[in-house]
């Protein structure tokens, strides 16, 4: 799963993927840029191979341009990387991952990713959420809809 969060507004975009690789990371970035209603100037990612070349290949003849970086450059976005062994740097994303987990897999059992995608789609007021659309809402255990974007993450997950 890819998650993008605006540090100021807490606007979140998420995408469920079968495999987190370079291709899907680029597709998620494209989708996120279309979903966010303002210009993104900086992106902070971890050092995963879906975002950057492996450290041993950087600045060598084996280096190859990354699709993620090409999309950033084409859109005037600075791509920054977290420091290795500093997991607290991406704490907002980890907190949103926890919120999503509490609202889905900790409350329900899914046989497959497709079943989870279907649940997410059925859980929005419009029934429009797919793995390519922003995270909008979850249906609570009582059947009511809880808009994640209008509440603090803990409030939405613990209601």
Walk me through what this model shows.
- The chain is of the alpha+beta class.
- Helix content is 32%, strand content 14%.
- A two-stranded antiparallel sheet has the order 1-2. It has a two-stranded parallel ribbon with strand order 3-4. A two-stranded antiparallel sheet has the order 5-6.
- Helix 1 (22-35) packs parallel to helix 2.
- The longest helix is centred in the N-terminal third of the chain and has 14 residues, at 22-35.
- It is globular and about 50 Å long.
- Mean pLDDT is 74; it is low at 124-159.
Residue windows where pLDDT falls under 50 for at least 5 positions: 124-159
Q: Structural class, from helix and strand content?
A: alpha+beta
Mean pLDDT: 74
The portion of residues assigned to helices is: 25-40%
- Name the beta content range: 5-15%
Largest beta sheet, briefly? 2 strands, antiparallel
| Number of H- or I-type helical stretches | 5
**What's the total count of β strands?**
6
The shape, in one word, is: globular
Distance between the termini: 24 Å
Q: How would you write the strand order of the largest sheet?
A: 1-2
Rg, Å, rounded: 17 Å
Helix-strand topology string? EEHEHEHHEEH
Short description:
The chain has 159 residues and is α+β, with helices and mostly antiparallel strands. The protein contains 5 helices and 6 strands. Strand 3, helix 2 (67-74) and strand 4 (78-81) form a beta-alpha-beta unit.
Features:
159 residues, alpha+beta, two-stranded antiparallel ribbon, 5 helices, 6 strands
Topology:
Blueprint: E1 2-5, E2 12-15, H1 22-35, E3 42-45, H2 67-74, E4 78-81, H3 91-103, H4 113-122, E5 137-139, E6 145-147, H5 153-158
Parallel strand pairs: 3-4
Antiparallel strand pairs: 1-2, 5-6
Helix pairs in contact: 1-2
């Amino acid at each position: 799963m890819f998650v993008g969060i605006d540090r100021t507004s807490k606007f979140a975009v998420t995408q469920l993927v079968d495999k987190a690789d370079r291709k899907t990371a680029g597709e998620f970035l494209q989708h996120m840029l279309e979903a966010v209603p303002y210009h993104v100037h900086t992106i902070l990612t971890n050092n995963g191979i879906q975002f950057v070349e492996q450290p041993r290949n950087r600045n060598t003849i084996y280096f190859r341009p990354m699709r993620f970086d090409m999309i950033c450059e084409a859109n005037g976005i600075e791509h920054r990387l977290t420091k290795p062994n500093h997991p607290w740097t991406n704490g907002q994303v980890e907190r949103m991952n926890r919120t999503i987990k509490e609202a889905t897999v900790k409350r329900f059992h899914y046989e497959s990713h497709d079943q989870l995608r279907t649940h997410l789609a059925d859980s929005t007021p419009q029934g429009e959420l797919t793995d390519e659309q922003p995270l909008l809402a979850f249906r609570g255990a009582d059947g009511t809809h809880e808009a994640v974007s209008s509440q603090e993450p803990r409030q939405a997950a613990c209601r």
